[in-house]
Design brief:
Blueprint (H helix, E strand, L loop, with lengths): L4 H10 L6 E7 L11 E7 L3 H10 L6 E4 L5 E3 L4 E7 L7 E4 L2 E5 L4 H10 L2 E2 L11 H6 L3 E2 L2 E2 L4 E7 L5 E5 L17 E8 L1 E2 L2 H18 L5 E2 L12 H7 L6 E2 L2 E3 L7 E3 L5 H19 L8 E3 L9 E2 L1
Parallel strand pairs: 2-5, 3-5, 4-19
Antiparallel strand pairs: 1-2, 6-7, 7-13, 8-14, 9-10, 11-12, 11-13, 15-18, 16-17, 16-20, 17-18
Length: 314
């Protein structure tokens, strides 16, 4: 269902002119890995960092906005997202190599960053090849894989607030913990600088190949899914708790649990966002009933619910 035309038009008229794209009532399913979700009232794709800054500085006070990247770890609800959705791609994806360090725009793919580093003989960033999505989200959530995380390699990052003011922050200022940082909700990471170590491209490529083999064998990389659904609780893993709670065969409409890795939800082709979220919530309920552990969502759930819900069952 399209959002109210007058509301969208009124919002558009209040927004500043941009060099990038401003579009109304844009379906977001095509921009998420789950391929589900309703529309953005307004979708803004900035041409570059300056375009983003001027947009934020020119927005009316209290303009609601939501930032997404490649949509790898987001679930957009079926009712869509009100206000402005800012999608960081294209003009914010420049990668620059300087010795054993690499500066990266927030829209750059994590995989591309790891490959660029490898080609330049920079080791230590191979783990990014196993992190779905782009750098802005990876910094915000201290993303990681294969025993490493962003906190291990980040030197600094440039962050812009809702008023368009930018500030360079060194890694320690983010107060990283497992899958979290102290970034405010409206803070936007636009650039990050990572430090690795010099190595031969051959050795780095071999390590990346080994990691890719492990990932393809253990995760549903060719299905409509996101990253890990739930954060691992202390001294345990989400997948083990889900498995022990007997959730592997659960389904809700077109949403199922991955047969390869039960901490991944899968859209089998006709799922709604409500199906996926409902299935996830049923997994949380069963795990808590069985173990007393409340699994926390790692997937970001954004926007408004629609009216139709379907039952969860095996």
């Amino acid at each position: 269902m399209m959002m109210a035309t007058k509301r969208v038009q009124d919002l558009l008229e209040k927004l500043p002119r941009v060099r990038g794209e401003l579009r109304a009532n844009v379906p977001l399913a095509r921009y998420t890995w789950f391929r589900v979700g309703g529309p953005a009232e307004i979708l803004f794709t900035p041409a570059d960092r300056d375009d983003l800054v001027k947009f934020l500085q020119g927005c009316p006070d209290n303009t609601p906005f939501t930032v997404i990247g490649l949509g790898s770890n987001v679930l957009v609800r079926d009712g869509g997202i009100p206000g402005v959705v800012i999608r960081l791609v294209r003009g914010l994806s420049v990668i620059k190599v300087e010795g054993s360090e690499i500066s990266v725009g927030a829209g750059a793919l994590d995989l591309k960053v790891s490959r660029t580093a490898a080609a330049a003989g920079i080791g230590g960033l191979e783990f990014l090849s196993g992190v779905p999505g782009s750098i802005g989200g990876a910094v915000r959530m201290n993303a990681g894989a294969y025993g490493q995380e962003v906190a291990d390699v980040l030197v600094s990052a440039v962050v812009i607030n809702q008023r368009g003011l930018s500030r360079k922050r060194v890694a320690d200022e983010f107060r990283f913990t497992y899958r979290t940082s102290n970034l405010a909700k409206d803070d936007i990471v636009v650039e990050a600088r990572f430090r690795g170590y010099m190595d031969t491209s051959t050795r780095i490529a071999k390590r990346m190949g080994q990691l890719e083999k492990v990932r393809s064998e253990s995760q549903p990389t060719r299905e409509r899914t996101g990253g890990s659904t739930f954060i691992n609780p202390p001294q345990d893993t989400a997948w083990r708790l889900i498995d022990n709670a007997g959730c592997r065969d659960l389904r809700c409409g077109g949403a199922t649990i991955s047969k390869k890795h039960c901490n991944f939800l899968v859209n089998n082709g006709n799922a709604t966002a409500a199906d996926l979220e409902g299935l996830g919530e049923e997994v949380r309920r069963r795990v808590f009933s069985e173990t007393g552990v409340r699994l926390a969502w790692e997937i970001r759930r954004l926007g408004c619910h629609a009216a139709i819900l379907r039952d969860v069952g095996a």
